[in-house]
Design goal:
Layout: H1 9-17, E1 21-22, H2 23-30, H3 35-42, E2 47-49, E3 57-60, E4 71-74, E5 77-80, H4 85-95, H5 102-109, H6 114-122, E6 126-131, E7 134-139, H7 142-154, H8 159-171, H9 175-189, H10 193-201, H11 205-217
Antiparallel strand pairs: 1-3, 2-3, 4-5, 6-7
Helix pairs in contact: 4-6, 9-10, 9-11, 10-11
Length: about 240
């Protein structure tokens, strides 16, 4: 009985014609219906399985155009030099200078990573810690994790959180301080700062510009600003005797 021989060259030719293929295409190229035969021939090639679409797509490392993070997207199919989604998430989080929130990693790999991150923590491959009501995922190694945590805390808060803090602080100031604070933030923002601060604090743009000018020229009144209830008590009117 003659033994059927399958040549891996057929797979190489298929990949050259189509850089991303499916298992049925690989079977057809070899002329077999057996998946084990396909994987035995693939083993001789530097192939890669997609981490999206449940690993249903295949390519060769020599054809993949990986970016600096080791990721490559062909149409809507995602591949990683690091391997599976689990291995990719572990590598990217560990390499990240300040760790990763779930949404940050999702944006990077373009698929949902919540379940993968949870499994990596359970397996002891990553560490997570709550920060601002969310979990920050960091490296498992203690020294690296501490570096990432410190780097994350040193980062400025997201724009929406920063603006909320600015408005809260602004509400605690008196009239002159509000004008000067708006002017200070306008200076920090640069071009267009007056109008931006006017919208944020509900001020007139000229008021912000005035506060900015007063700061630049040092025209700031240092005397105490009178608050509600300050000053001399009101004199009660005397009633005419009836």
């Amino acid at each position: 009985m003659n033994t059927i021989r399958y040549s891996a060259d057929r797979l190489t030719a298929l990949f050259q014609a189509t850089p991303v293929v499916t298992l049925p295409q690989l079977k057809a190229a070899l002329g077999t219906t057996v998946a084990v035969t396909v994987f035995r021939k693939l083993a001789a090639l530097p192939y890669r399985t997609s981490y999206s679409h449940c690993g249903a797509y295949y390519t060769l490392d020599s054809l993949a155009q990986y970016d600096q993070a080791g990721l490559w997207t062909y149409r809507d199919i995602h591949f990683s030099r690091h391997g599976t989604l689990l291995d990719t998430a572990a590598t990217l989080v560990t390499q990240s200078p300040a760790g990763c929130f779930t949404n940050e990693l999702d944006a990077m790999v373009q698929v949902a990573t919540k379940d993968a991150l949870r499994r990596l923590v359970q397996q002891g491959r990553l560490h997570r810690r709550e920060l601002g009501g969310r979990y920050l995922y960091c490296a498992h190694e203690r020294g690296r994790r501490q570096q990432q945590w410190a780097a994350r805390q040193a980062q400025p808060p997201p724009e929406d959180e920063r603006q909320a803090a600015q408005v809260l602080f602004y509400s605690l100031l008196d009239e002159q301080q509000r004008r000067l604070y708006a002017g200070l933030e306008s200076l920090a923002w640069g071009h267009g700062g007056d109008q931006r601060m006017a919208r944020l604090f509900g001020l007139d743009g000229e008021t912000v510009a005035r506060g900015r000018t007063e700061l630049v020229r040092g025209q700031v009144l240092h005397e105490r600003v009178r608050r509600v209830g300050g000053g001399r008590p009101r004199v009660e009117k005397k009633r005419r005797p009836s």
